[in-house]
Design brief:
Layout (H helix, E strand, L loop, with lengths): L22 E2 L11 E4 L4 E6 L2 E4 L17 H12 L3 E5 L4 E5 L13 E6 L2 E6 L19 E7 L5 E8 L3 E5 L4 E5 L14 E8 L2 E8 L54 E5 L7 E6 L4 E6 L5 E2 L19 H8 L12 E2 L2 H6 L5 E2 L9 E6 L4 H6 L1 E5 L7 E7 L5 E2 L2 E3 L11 E5 L12 E7 L12
Parallel strand pairs: 1-2, 19-20
Antiparallel strand pairs: 2-3, 3-4, 5-6, 7-8, 9-10, 11-12, 13-14, 15-16, 16-17, 17-18, 21-27, 22-26, 23-24, 23-27, 25-26
C-alpha cells in the first residue's frame, strides 16, 4: 500500500538513493504535466506532456509471436533465414530417428512381420497378412457349454489360431460349524436358515442379484450369556424389577442422575445414595421430603441437615472488632503504594488530561482525555482556497504527536504540521495543517487528525559525543 503525501517534499539538495519509477501495467490516474510512469506491458518509460503519455525511447526485439516492439534489419534477416532451414522433416519411431528433404526425398511406410502396406493415389492401406493357421475366417463353430469354457489361442498379430474347450466343476462344497455337504450347482437348492428366536434370514432378488440378509431377531428368547465387551449404540431398556451390577467401577457420562423417576403427584419418597460399610452402619446422603432439605446419617442414627443459602452464618467484621461492615472497611483502609496493596483515589477529568493528580489512578473512560480527534472537510470552500486547517485541541502543551489518515481508505497520509495557530504563532492549544503549494492536488477524501498529548512525560538525556 502506497504512503500518500499531501504536501511537497523538499530534499534540501540531498540525493534520492535507490529510488524506483512508478511501475504498472496501466497508466496512473489523474496525471499532471511531468508525471513519469514505466509501462510493464511495453517495458518503456513514459512521460505525461500536452495531455498524452509519450515514450522516452524506442525498444527493439527479435521477431516472435506476441512481440510488441520494432525489429532491426539484422533481426529480420535472422528470422527469414530460420524459415528457409525448415524445409526438412524430422521424425522418430519407437526406436531410431530419421529426416526427409521435402524437395528431393520420399517418405516410405513399410509393414513389419505379418503386415503389408499399399500406397495408391493419395491413400495408404495397411493390411494384416493371412496365414495357413489363421482361423479368423475358417473353422467356425460354438465353443463352451454349461460344463465347459472355451480356450482360444491368438498369435502376435491378433489372429485366432486355435480353439477348444476345458471342463469346469459344477459342485460346491459347503462347510459349517459342524458338518460338510456337496452342492450340485445345476440341480440342488442352497438354503440359509437362522435359529428360531435368535437369527432371522431374508432372501431377495433385485435384477440379477440374489441377496441373503442375516440379522439378529427383534426378540431373542431364552437366557443368553455374552462374554467380553458388549456395545449398545441405542438406549438400554430393562423391564425387570432388579438390575445387578457386579463390576467394581461404574463410569457414567451424564452429569445429572435422576432418582424416583416414576414419582407423580405430591412427592412422598426420600431419595439419595446409600454406602455399604460392612460391619459398620451404612452411610446415607438423601433428600428428606418431610423437611424439604438435604440430610445425611449413619444407619438409623441422628439425621444431620446440610447447610443451605437460607441459613445465616455469623462472622466477625473483618476481625476488626467493628460492629458494621462500613466501620470495618474504615479500619482496614490504607493507601496503596508501589510496594503495598491498598485503596486508591480516581483522578478527575482535568487531572487525567493534564497529567496532574499525583498518586491517583485514571479510569478507563478517562484515558481518551489526553487525545483529541478532528475531521477536515476537504469540500469546504475556505479550506480549498486557503489550503490549510487550524485545529484547536486545548491540551495545553506543544509536546504532542499529530497523525493524519484518509477517512475513506484508512491510509496514513502526510502534510505539513505546525504547532502554531493559523497566523503561524507558536501555540500550546492549536496546530496548523497545510496541504501542498499552489497547483498541487488537494485530497479527495476527508482527513482525520489525531492529536495525542505527552504533557508530563519524563525528560530524556541527550548526548553529543
Amino acid at each position: 500500500m502506497a504512503v500518500p503525501f499531501l504536501h511537497n517534499i523538499d530534499l534540501n539538495q540531498n540525493e534520492l538513493l535507490n529510488a524506483k519509477i512508478h511501475t504498472d501495467s496501466s497508466a496512473p490516474s489523474n496525471p499532471g504535466t511531468g508525471s513519469v510512469w514505466f509501462d510493464t506491458n511495453t517495458n518503456l518509460l513514459k512521460i505525461y506532456r500536452g495531455g498524452n503519455w509519450d515514450n522516452l525511447f524506442v525498444k527493439t526485439e527479435a521477431i516472435a509471436d506476441g512481440g510488441t516492439n520494432l525489429a532491426t534489419a539484422d533481426q529480420i534477416h535472422t528470422f527469414v533465414t530460420s524459415l528457409i532451414t525448415q524445409e526438412d522433416l524430422d521424425f522418430s519411431g519407437d526406436s531410431g530417428t530419421g529426416s526427409i528433404d521435402l524437395d528431393s526425398q520420399t517418405f516410405a511406410i513399410t509393414g513389419a512381420t505379418g503386415i503389408t502396406t499399399t500406397a495408391s493415389g493419395q491413400g495408404l492401406s495397411i493390411d494384416l497378412d493371412d496365414t495357413a493357421s489363421d482361423m479368423t475366417a475358417t473353422n467356425s463353430g460354438v465353443y463352451g457349454s454349461a460344463t465347459a469354457i472355451p480356450v482360444i489361442t491368438v498369435d502376435r498379430q491378433g489372429r485366432l489360431t486355435a480353439a477348444t474347450t476345458a471342463a469346469i466343476s459344477t459342485t460346491l462344497t459347503v462347510d459349517g460349524d459342524s458338518g460338510s455337504e456337496d452342492l450340485a450347482l445345476t440341480t440342488d437348492d442352497l438354503q440359509i436358515l437362522g435359529t428360531t428366536g435368535e437369527i432371522d434370514v431374508a432372501v431377495t432378488k433385485v435384477s440379477t442379484d440374489v441377496k441373503a440378509t442375516i440379522g439378529l431377531a427383534d426378540t431373542i428368547t431364552g437366557n443368553r450369556t455374552f462374554s467380553n465387551n458388549v456395545t449398545i449404540n441405542g438406549d438400554l431398556i430393562v423391564s425387570g424389577s432388579q438390575t445387578t451390577k457386579a463390576s467394581e467401577t461404574v463410569l457414567i457420562e451424564d452429569n445429572i442422575i435422576l432418582l424416583n423417576s416414576n414419582e407423580t403427584g405430591t412427592p412422598s419418597e426420600d431419595a439419595g445414595i446409600e454406602v455399604e460399610r460392612g460391619d459398620q452402619n451404612n452411610a446415607r446422603l438423601y433428600y428428606d421430603e418431610s423437611t424439604g432439605r438435604w440430610s445425611q446419617r449413619h444407619g438409623t442414627g441422628t439425621e444431620f441437615k446440610l447447610h443451605t443459602e437460607a441459613d445465616t452464618i455469623s462472622i466477625a467484621d473483618g476481625g476488626t472488632g467493628a460492629t458494621t461492615a462500613a466501620a470495618a472497611f474504615t479500619n482496614l483502609k490504607q493507601a496503596a503504594t508501589t510496594t503495598a496493596t491498598g485503596v486508591v483515589e480516581l483522578a478527575t477529568a482535568t487531572e487525567a488530561k493534564d497529567g496532574s493528580g499525583s498518586g491517583k489512578v485514571v479510569d478507563a473512560s478517562q484515558i481518551g482525555a489526553r487525545s483529541v480527534v478532528a475531521t477536515i472537510d476537504v469540500s469546504d470552500s475556505t479550506f480549498t482556497s486557503n489550503r490549510y486547517a487550524e485545529i484547536t485541541h486545548n491540551l495545553g502543551t506543544t509536546d504532542t504527536i499529530v497523525q493524519l489518515y484518509d477517512t475513506s481508505t484508512e491510509e496514513t497520509v502526510y502534510a505539513d504540521v505546525a504547532r502554531t495557530d493559523k497566523s503561524d504563532s507558536t501555540s500550546a492549544n492549536k496546530v496548523k495543517i497545510t496541504f501542498g503549494g499552489a497547483g498541487s492536488t488537494l485530497p479527495t477524501n476527508d482527513i482525520r487528525v489525531v492529536i495525542v498529548s505527552n504533557k508530563g512525560a519524563s525528560s530524556g538525556t541527550v548526548a553529543y559525543s
